[in-house]
Amino acid sequence: MPTLTDEQRRQWAVDGYIHLKGALDPREVALYSELIDSIRHQPGWEPTPDVPRGHYAWVERNPTADDPNSFMDRRDIMGYAQPFLDMVDRPNVFDRILELMGPYIVLSMTQAIVRAPTTEFAGFTHTDGGEALRRIRVTETSKPLAMKALYLLTDVEGTDCGNFTVFPGSHLRQIPFDCDAAPTPHTPGAVQLGGEAGDCYLFSHALWHGPAPNHSGKGRKTLLYNYAQMFLKTYDFPTMTGVMDSCTPRQRRLLGDLGHDPRPGDYFYVPDDQEEVIYEQPRARQAA
Ligand SMILES: O=C(O)CCC(=O)C(=O)O
Prior knowledge:
By secondary structure, the protein is α+β, with helices and mostly antiparallel strands. The chain has one domain (6-234): Sandwich (Jelly Rolls), CATH 2.60.120.620. The chain is built from 8 helices and 11 strands. Strands 1-9-6-11-5-4 form a 6-stranded antiparallel sheet. The protein is globular. The protein starts with 5 loop residues before the first helix and ends with a helix. The model has no long low-confidence stretch (mean pLDDT 93). Residues 113, 115, 128, 148, 164, 209-211, 222, 224 line the site of 2-oxoglutaric acid.
């Protein structure tokens, strides 16, 4: 069953992202926001000065954990609380992801980010997936290699408020750059998106995007769930631990459990029951 409107399909193809309004209700926004505040006090993976850009190190607690508006970038969040796991295949968003990506996918990473209000952060933009994936661009009729769902947990009004910033169409047309001169949230063509707490943006890995500076006076909170075609290596698998027992069969599959011991061919050729598991349908044999 199609879950995207014609306009959303157009926006995905032409702009490389879709804005879903009201994906979370106010009660959920409050719940996830409080959970983000609480995980700051617990150990986990965060960027630290001693690891290269894009890498994460184990920290015992966020350095400014007592200030919920301060910067945090925590990875692999599913183990902290069941609601983070529930979000993996949340129907009103995951249905759309399935429509865009098809059923042969895995969950590649989870992340909670707070962009602190500060004059010291200029924002940045990038494509996802590091140095190699940036050089690979699919056509507009192709399924995406990877994509993210970004959930806003705070309202973002105006510009330079930590806005999620995009260069519409850049998923199809590479922006020429060198490492010293990547486009910024103020480069011509950048669009600093506004939105309300509870909205979700779906965007392609190949879209130039990133956070704008935040001069709003309050922290901008987001949750991110990244999905990839199964044959791609995932960001978080080596650290995804301890949650399998709380998962539904579909969530287990999305976390990389193929239902058998590892063997050559895994992830490139999918298990026979992949579509039944991912679409949560009864197996054809059982139904017959
Ligand atoms: O908006 C943000 O804070 C960063 C989101 C982002 O750049 C990403 O998910 O790659």
